[in-house]
C-alpha cells in the first residue's frame, strides 16, 4: 500500500492508549469492486469476489503498515436515514447496485467476523456517523485514530490525533489527510470543510451547491467571514453574480450543512476499548477463505494477523512436543561436529533402525534445477544439521547410505521436492513412509499452506519461529545447544534441525486426524504412491523443440503486429490497445458503439464485455482488437515455455498435489495443463513437444467424458446411462432428448448449450454462471436447466440428495472416500451457504474423476515396471496421460495403458479410454 509519510503526532498531554483504525465498510467495498475486474475474481461456483478480495487486501495492508491496536468497520444499513427523511433526493443519483456486487458486503462481514473485527451498524444513521462518534470517544480516551474512508465528509473529523486515509487509486493508494493536508488542498481547516462542502455541494450525495461558486471562492468567503455562519450573515454584502447566486440558494446551503454534519454522539452500545484486537479464529478464517478460493490472501493473512487460537488443538501438555523440542539436542556438522565424524555420530545417536527419522532439506526443491545446501535428520530426541559443503568423502558415504536405505523409515514434508534437491547433489532417497504435507492436505484440503512451520502451529500449537529466537521469547524455551565453538551455530541449520524434529510429532497428530476422517487408506494407497510417480515424471520432463517454439513466437509477433495495424486502420489513428482509457474513447466516442457495463473509470473493456460487443456489432475494429489480445496471450505462453527449457532440452514442470480441495493436480513452472487443446494455435504449440532421444514416440490416452460418466454412475439415471450405451455422440444424443427432437435435427448451438449444461451440473455451476458462460439471459438458462431435469430426473434427485447429505454429515465424499468438509452449508449467510452448496455438487464428481486418474497413474506406472518396460509417464493433463515410448514397446504399452486406465474404477457405464501416438504431442492427439 502506498501512503505518504506519517508525521509525528504532537503531545496531547495524555498517555497514548493505542491506535484505533476505523473503516467505512461500504465505501471501501465499492472502491474495491471497481478497482478489480470481476472476471479475475470469481469462484469456480460463479460467485463474484472482487470487492471482498480488494477490501481484505487493503485491510491487511493497513494492519501491516499502521499496526493498530483497536479496529472496527462501520457499514450502512439498507433503507433510509434521518437525512433521506429530510431530503428524499439525498444520494438519489447513485447508480443501481451492480449485480456482481450484491452479496459481497455480507461476505466481507463474514471474513471480518472470523478475524474478530466488529462490523458495526446503526439503524437510521450512516457509517460516517458511527466513525465520527467512535473517533471522538477514542480521542477523549487518549487513542490515536485513523479513519479509512472514500467519503470526503470524513475530513471534518481530522484533528492532530485523527487522520483520514483517503483512497486516490482504487484501495491500494491512500492519501493521509492531516489538518495540514486538508487546509493545503481545500483552503480551510478540517472543522470547516463541511462549510465549504455546503457551499459547493457534493455530487456523490446529490447535494447541489451554489451555482458559480467553486472551492476557491467558497474557501475565500469562509476565511473572510470566519465560517459559514459569517458568510450567511454577510450574504447581502457579497457582490457580483456569485453573491446573488448565494442569496438565491441559501436554503440549499443550509440544508447541505444540516445533512453533511456528522453526528458524534450516537449510542452504539460499545466503547472504543471494546474494539481492541482480540485475535482471529484460525479455523473460521480458513473455512471462509477456502469458500472464497483466496489462496494467496489466506497465506498473507496467516503471516499478518494475530490469532486467538495457537492451533486447532490448543496448547500441548507439559510433556508435549513443544517441551521435547525445546530440550532437543542439536549438532551441526562443521560447528559442533568436526568434518569426518559423521559416521561415528550417526552410529552412536541415530542407529535405531526401527525409529523413523524426520528429514528436512534446505535448498531449491525444483525438478532438475534443484539443489540441497543443508540436510537435517532427527529421531525426535536428537537432531543433526549437515552443511553439505562441509562433508568429507567419508561423511558423504555415511549420509548417502542412510538416505538410500529403504529399511530406515523417513518422514518429511514435500517428498517430491526433497527427492529433487537430494538427487541434484548425487544423493539417493529411499524409505519415505510419510509426507506430512500430504497428510495435512487430506485432513484439511481447504488450507493453502502446508509448510512445516504452518503445520506445527496448526496441529501442535508450536510456533517454530518463536523458538528460533534462541531464548529471546521467554514464553517459549530455547534449544539447549551443546556447541563446540564459541560462536552461535548458523540459524538456517538450527531452523532445519527443528523442522526435522517436528516431523514425527506432526505425523502422529495427523494420523489420528486421518483416522477420524477415514482418510488413512487414501493417504497410503493413493496420495503417497502418486507422489512417487509424479516425482519420476517431473524428473523425466518432456523434450521440446525450441526451433518450433521460436517459429511460433515469430508468427505470433506478426499476428500481434497485423492485428494492431488493422485496429489502427479501423480507428483512423494509432492507440495503445492495452489502455482501457484509450479504448473507451475509441469504442464509445469515436466509433459510437453501445455502452458496456459502467465502472468507476468509465465503461468496461474487459474480455467478456468486448466479446459481447463484437457479437452485437460485428465491428472490424473489435475483431482486430480481440485477435490482438489472443495473439499476445499465446505469445506469452510460448515465451514462458521457451524460458522453461532446461539444459537437457526438456521442460520439467512441477505438479502440485495440495492446491485443489477436490484432489485435482495442477501444474506450475510452467503450467503444461493450460495449453489449448481444441484450437489450431494450441495444437501448433503442442507440436513443439516431441519425443526425446532414445525413445520411439509419444503416446497419449484420455478418458472420454469422465465427469459425465461419474454423474451417470452416481445418479443411476437410466436415460443418461442409456445415452452412453447408445453409441451416439453423447452431447448430441442428450440434446435430442432435452429438446424432444431427433439426433439429426440437433443444431451445433443446441449441442453446445447442452454440453455446457451437463458439465456445469458436474461443476456446481449456478444458473447465473451458466447464463454468463453461454451468453444468454438468466431466463433462458433457467429454462434450459428445467428442460434438462425434466428428461434426466434422477440427475436432479442426485444433486439435491448430495447437498442434503452433505448438510447432515458436514462433508461430501468421492467414490474413493476423499472428504471435503463444508461447514458453510448451515451458514446463516445466504451467499456463503449457496457457495457451499455449489461446492457440494462439485466435489464428489470432480474429486472422483481426480482420484480415478491418480489410481490409473499408479497402476500404469506399476505395470510398466512389472513388465520390465522402459517406457515412462511424462505428463498428466487432468483426464489425459502422456507417455514416452521406448523402441518396440508401443503396441504393448498402448494395450497396457487402455487396460489399466479402464480398470481404475468400476462404474455402471464403461470408462472409455482412447489412445494415440506420434512424434509430437500434436501428432499423438486422437
Automatic annotation (TrEMBL):
<dbReference type="InterPro" id="IPR008918">
    <property type="entry name" value="HhH2"/>
</dbReference>
<feature type="domain" description="5'-3' exonuclease">
    <location>
        <begin position="18"/>
        <end position="278"/>
    </location>
</feature>
<dbReference type="InterPro" id="IPR002562">
    <property type="entry name" value="3'-5'_exonuclease_dom"/>
</dbReference>
<keyword id="KW-0548">Nucleotidyltransferase</keyword>
<keyword id="KW-0808">Transferase</keyword>
<dbReference type="Pfam" id="PF01367">
    <property type="entry name" value="5_3_exonuc"/>
</dbReference>
<dbReference type="Pfam" id="PF02739">
    <property type="entry name" value="5_3_exonuc_N"/>
</dbReference>
<dbReference type="GO" id="GO:0008409">
    <property type="term" value="F:5'-3' exonuclease activity"/>
</dbReference>
<keyword id="KW-0540">Nuclease</keyword>
<feature type="domain" description="3'-5' exonuclease">
    <location>
        <begin position="333"/>
        <end position="515"/>
    </location>
</feature>
<comment type="similarity">
    <text>Belongs to the DNA polymerase type-A family.</text>
</comment>
<dbReference type="GO" id="GO:0003887">
    <property type="term" value="F:DNA-directed DNA polymerase activity"/>
</dbReference>
<keyword id="KW-0239">DNA-directed DNA polymerase</keyword>
<protein>
    <recommendedName>
        <fullName>DNA polymerase I</fullName>
        <ecNumber>2.7.7.7</ecNumber>
    </recommendedName>
</protein>
<keyword id="KW-0269">Exonuclease</keyword>
<dbReference type="InterPro" id="IPR001098">
    <property type="entry name" value="DNA-dir_DNA_pol_A_palm_dom"/>
</dbReference>
<dbReference type="InterPro" id="IPR002298">
    <property type="entry name" value="DNA_polymerase_A"/>
</dbReference>
<dbReference type="GO" id="GO:0006302">
    <property type="term" value="P:double-strand break repair"/>
</dbReference>
<comment type="function">
    <text>In addition to polymerase activity, this DNA polymerase exhibits 3'-5' and 5'-3' exonuclease activity.</text>
</comment>
<keyword id="KW-0235">DNA replication</keyword>
<keyword id="KW-0227">DNA damage</keyword>
<dbReference type="GO" id="GO:0006261">
    <property type="term" value="P:DNA-templated DNA replication"/>
</dbReference>
<dbReference type="InterPro" id="IPR043502">
    <property type="entry name" value="DNA/RNA_pol_sf"/>
</dbReference>
<dbReference type="InterPro" id="IPR020045">
    <property type="entry name" value="DNA_polI_H3TH"/>
</dbReference>
<dbReference type="GO" id="GO:0003677">
    <property type="term" value="F:DNA binding"/>
</dbReference>
<dbReference type="Pfam" id="PF00476">
    <property type="entry name" value="DNA_pol_A"/>
</dbReference>
<keyword id="KW-0378">Hydrolase</keyword>
<keyword id="KW-0238">DNA-binding</keyword>
<feature type="domain" description="DNA-directed DNA polymerase family A palm">
    <location>
        <begin position="682"/>
        <end position="889"/>
    </location>
</feature>
<dbReference type="InterPro" id="IPR036397">
    <property type="entry name" value="RNaseH_sf"/>
</dbReference>
<dbReference type="InterPro" id="IPR036279">
    <property type="entry name" value="5-3_exonuclease_C_sf"/>
</dbReference>
<dbReference type="InterPro" id="IPR002421">
    <property type="entry name" value="5-3_exonuclease"/>
</dbReference>
<dbReference type="GO" id="GO:0008408">
    <property type="term" value="F:3'-5' exonuclease activity"/>
</dbReference>
<dbReference type="InterPro" id="IPR019760">
    <property type="entry name" value="DNA-dir_DNA_pol_A_CS"/>
</dbReference>
<dbReference type="InterPro" id="IPR012337">
    <property type="entry name" value="RNaseH-like_sf"/>
</dbReference>
<dbReference type="Pfam" id="PF22619">
    <property type="entry name" value="DNA_polI_exo1"/>
</dbReference>
<keyword id="KW-0234">DNA repair</keyword>
<dbReference type="InterPro" id="IPR054690">
    <property type="entry name" value="DNA_polI_exonuclease"/>
</dbReference>
<dbReference type="InterPro" id="IPR029060">
    <property type="entry name" value="PIN-like_dom_sf"/>
</dbReference>
<dbReference type="InterPro" id="IPR018320">
    <property type="entry name" value="DNA_polymerase_1"/>
</dbReference>
<dbReference type="InterPro" id="IPR020046">
    <property type="entry name" value="5-3_exonucl_a-hlix_arch_N"/>
</dbReference>
